[in-house]
Amino acid sequence: MTETSYESAVAIIGMSGRFPGAGGVDELWRNLADGRHGLREVTADELARAGISPALIANPSYVRTAAALDGIELFDAGLFGFSRREAESTEPQHRLFLECSWEALEAAGYAPSRAPGRVGVFAGCGYPDYMQRIAQHPLRKVASGPVA
Question: If DSSP states are collapsed to H, E and C, what string results for 71-96?
Answer without folding.
Answer: CHHHCCHHHHCCCHHHHHHCCHHHHH
